[in-house]
Amino acid sequence: MGASATYRVVGAVMLAAIATHRYATVRRPAGVAEYHRRVRDAAARIPGHIGSWVGQDVPVPAQAIKVLDPNVIISRKYLNVENGVTAGLLFVHCSDAHDMAGHFPLRCYPARGWDVRASRPRDWNAGSLAVTGSEYEFTAEMLEGRRVDAAMVVDNCLLRPGGQVLRDMETMTRSIVGAGGQSSGAAQIQIYFDASVPPERRDEAVEALVKGYRPVIDAVLAPAGVPPPAREP
Prior knowledge:
By secondary structure, the protein is α+β, with helices and mostly antiparallel strands.
């Protein structure tokens, strides 16, 4: 066999291997479209008010929507009418888990002019749900050409089917390896505060707001293709 023929054979084998790998990783497992619909339905039932927290929808930048191509996205600013604390919340679910990689705190906030001051693992308990996540601190002197001298804290976790509550993007990326992994999707919760909010108030907010979002969180955590079990209020 001549050199050119050998190259053609090797090229054909490589292309077949790439196609097989892509089919295994991108193809949707049976029932995943219905699973994504259940996530959308659960998100539509999230109330605007959660206990003493009163929510107001906040526009999502068009660039973020383009990067995420979301199945679900909720962006709200909450005010606690009892103690005056404010918190922002972003919940996003992507049908393709790879789309999430371009939008998480250590990437999206620096891209908008914020500097990372600190990053640490954090865990919260929201009723029966153990939330494994991370807390990030950011500062900015200039935003969109204006001097701001701002500081903020972002509490973050990622969610995958099968009860996976993940601390960071590295663990999320590892979780999607394998057949159909990326096509079952992923979700992310960001709850963010002005850095002047005391840590104990931030933790109270995270726990209360996550409890309020349990219907859609439970829908994401259910096995793809399997309805989540009924949960008592």
